[in-house]
Amino acid sequence: MTSIRRKGPMVNARILLALALVAALAGCSAADGGGGSGRSSPRASASAGNASPGGKASLPGLEAWIYPGSTGEDTCGAVAEYRDGRLRNGVLKPQYWDVDPSGAVKLLDSGTHPCNGFSEADAADVKAYSAAQYTTVSAMDRPAIAALVSDPTRRTAAVGSLTELAKRIGFTGVDIDFEDFWTWTAEDESGYEAFLAELAQSLHRAGLKLQVDAPVETHDGDSVFDYAAVMRTGVDQLVVMDYGRQFNTPEGEKCWAISPHSWVREAVAYAQSRVPDKDRLVIGLPSYGFTAPDPCVTDKVKDSVALATMRRAPGYSDDPATTAARRDAASGEVRWTAGGTLYDYTDQQGMDTKLAVLHQLGVTHVSVWALGTNPWFSANPRTR
């Protein structure tokens, strides 16, 4: 974990606010009680308020994704990070599934993905260091998604496989991360909602829960993905992935930041208008960087670059004065150019700042992308 170098009263005030937020979220997380035995029923979590008798939210406040990889990759650092206890009262979401081109869900086991792939032992380890756990299912391109959601037989097979594994390993539920949203058709969205309804019903019968990852939207009709319609399928929580703004940069400009504060505020306000129950809304927060040509060429952006890799980039500096000069006030991210390439990353101070913005907006559930040699907040929940 990197250390924060505090410079000046404004930074001190911002960090104190972030520390208070982390403590508050940790307190919210502690109300869940840990593991699967103390979970409220899925139907209770889907009802308005979702509060325990004591008035505290019953779901954890801090979450983090973990993705699979090969030996030596940055993602391999995720295990050591969650074992420090930072999410003992929170949520861990390892990606154990993807969707193959035929539309079938495929288990990513530890034999082919030695870092964070599925095994019974690794799943037990994840449970030992978190209060709740979801198996993430990833699909990054429309054809694979369409092949799954358009076919009732494939939907039924996927629902059965996902429910069976989550129940067998004692996880809280399933997290659906289907993307490439901007190319979806209305028929894709209809099939997707049918799939979610079938999965939610199956999971709820088993006493499990469903999270769904959603694109950033700021107005009705930004994409065919419909927050309110998705929630009506029985989804327990919607996770808005509030990052990736750089991909909307106009041609000829310097790439925009990953999650500018003004854009986050607009997106969160819209999400809250569509999902008013704060315990059913989770906001994704970026803990990574990217590189891109300068001026920006969006289809040449290298995304999800870990801080450990960014430290090896040309011109990288840990010098406090250099970092302060490079920090973008509009996003909290650190940005510089070298050799015609823009480098942008979120450090620990940037994480604190982004978290403070979400706190100001009344967000109580935050999911971090991703563990694995990326920065965390300056105060761990385990210390509070």
Q: How would you describe this structure to a colleague?
A:
With 384 residues, the chain is α/β, with parallel strands linked by helices. Helix content is 34%, strand content 18%. It has 12 helices and 13 strands. The protein has helices spanning 8-30, 42-45, 78-82, 120-128, 142-149, 152-168, 186-205, 227-232, 261-274, 307-310, 320-326, 348-360; strands at residues 62-66, 91-99, 105-107, 132-139, 173-178, 209-214, 237-241, 281-286, 289-293, 302-305, 334-338, 341-345, 366-369. An 8-stranded parallel β-barrel has the order 1-2-4-5-6-7-8-13, surrounded by 6 helices. Strands 10-9-12-11 form a 4-stranded antiparallel sheet. Helix 6 packs parallel to helix 7. The radius of gyration is 20 Å and the shape is globular. It starts with 7 loop residues before the first helix and ends in a 15-residue tail after the last strand. The relative contact order is 0.16.
The Rg value, from CA coordinates, equals 20 Å
Alpha-beta classification: alpha/beta
List the uncertain runs. 1-19, 21-60
Number of helices: 12
Report how far apart the termini are: 17 Å
Fraction in helix: 25-40%
- The dominant shape is globular
Largest sheet: 8 strands, parallel, barrel
What is the N-to-C order of secondary-structure elements (H for helix, E for strand)? HHEHEEHEHHEHEHEHEEEHHEEHE
Q: Give the strand order of the largest sheet, numbering strands 1, 2, ... along the chain.
A: 1-2-4-5-6-7-8-13
How many individual β-strands? Answer: 13
Assess the beta-strand content as a share of residues.
15-25%
The pLDDT mean sits at 87
